[in-house]
């Protein structure tokens, strides 16, 4: 029983960080191509397979497929986009098939493995923009996560019936901690 339990925990540990793109396709990805290289000269990278992550800006259904405009972000070991407030630019990903824009909507995180097809020119506002253009081989839409808010409505003053607490320990209950629910006045 102990071996079975240990095997279950080991399996859950290793599958928790498993990449979302198939290993066969990951073996074909060129790890030396950075997004900066792709953005500077997408024609030179044409035909190469790359792995990118980012956040959807716009989804456009076309006759033969779906075009995703994505702003690039870094990805972690499992391929999930991280540091969503930092980007080196945008790219276009063309998916052969229909992706519903109600699901694949603005603000959703995606990971794309695709073949570089070159460059397309479009507009971002009034500015002319040169997008690196990929043909999607595999794509993963990350589920939306919601986190509970631990911000109490009385912060930073605390509820009116609480006064200053001389025994409040900032090292035991730092200002960002979810416990205690109502924070004391720290002044």
Quick tags:
5-stranded mixed β-barrel; single chain; globular; 3 helices; 187 residues; disordered C terminus
Mean pLDDT: 80
Number of helices: 3
As laid out across the biggest beta sheet, the strand order is 1-2-4-6-5
Q: Whole-number radius of gyration?
A: 23 Å
**Largest pleated sheet:** 5 strands, mixed, barrel
| CATH architecture name of the largest domain | Beta Barrel
Estimated share of beta-strand residues: 25-35%
CATH topology of the largest domain: OB fold (Dihydrolipoamide Acetyltransferase, E2P)
Give the tally of β-strands. Answer: 6
Shape: globular
Given the helix and strand composition, which structural class is it?
Answer: alpha+beta
Layout of secondary structure:
Elements: H1 2-16, H2 23-26, H3 35-40, E1 49-61, E2 66-75, E3 81-82, E4 90-95, E5 109-124, E6 127-141
Structural overview:
With 187 residues, the protein is α+β, with helices and mostly antiparallel strands. The protein is built from three helices and six strands. It has a five-stranded mixed barrel. The relative contact order is 0.15.
How would you summarize what this structure contains?
The protein has 187 residues and is an alpha+beta fold. The chain has three helices and six strands, in the order αααββββββ. It has two domains: 20-141, OB fold (Dihydrolipoamide Acetyltransferase, E2P) (Beta Barrel); 147-187, no CATH class.
